[in-house]
Design brief:
By secondary structure, the protein is mainly beta. The chain has one domain. The protein contains one helix and seven strands, in the order E-E-E-E-H-E-E-E. Strands 1, 2, 3, 6 and 7 form a five-stranded antiparallel β-sheet that branches. The radius of gyration is 19 Å and the shape is elongated. 3% of the residues are buried.
């Protein structure tokens, strides 16, 4: 569940990803700064998958370690689903055909929250 931090200091736009919550006891590699993949339980023979990895929900409290009150910022959360067979793979399996080679056999759905905007110049409204 990585919040993505976007800001425009001096009019320049950039983004930074913080891996904040990982399922299954996974940890960010301190050497690379990257999170390991969640894994893959797809059985390509009978086109099933086990929903035994990942987590149904994650909760975390996070503070931006690079927060600058003078800088515009937008924060949002991105979540990744475990890999599942793509529908064209299901169709090919039911028709007794091989899936199309040019397509990936599986997909990993993503979801994003609406951003939370921070601007020190804007008055607080409740």
């Amino acid at each position: 569940m990585p919040p993505i931090f976007a800001t425009e200091p001096g009019g320049r736009h950039f983004e930074k990803v913080f891996d904040v919550a990982l399922s299954g006891g996974r940890k960010v590699d301190p050497r690379t700064g990257k999170a390991p993949p969640v894994g893959n339980t797809i059985n390509r023979t009978n086109l099933t998958y086990a929903n035994t990895i990942g987590a149904p929900s994650l909760q975390v409290r996070w503070s931006d370690p690079e927060f600058d009150p003078a800088t515009l910022a937008a924060y949002y959360v991105r979540v990744l689903e475990i890999p599942t067979p793509r529908w064209s793979s299901y169709d090919a399996h039911r028709l007794g055909r091989e899936p199309l080679v040019k397509q990936s056999f599986s997909i990993q759905e993503r979801a994003f929250t609406s951003p939370i905007w921070y601007d020190a110049q804007m008055p607080v409204r409740y």
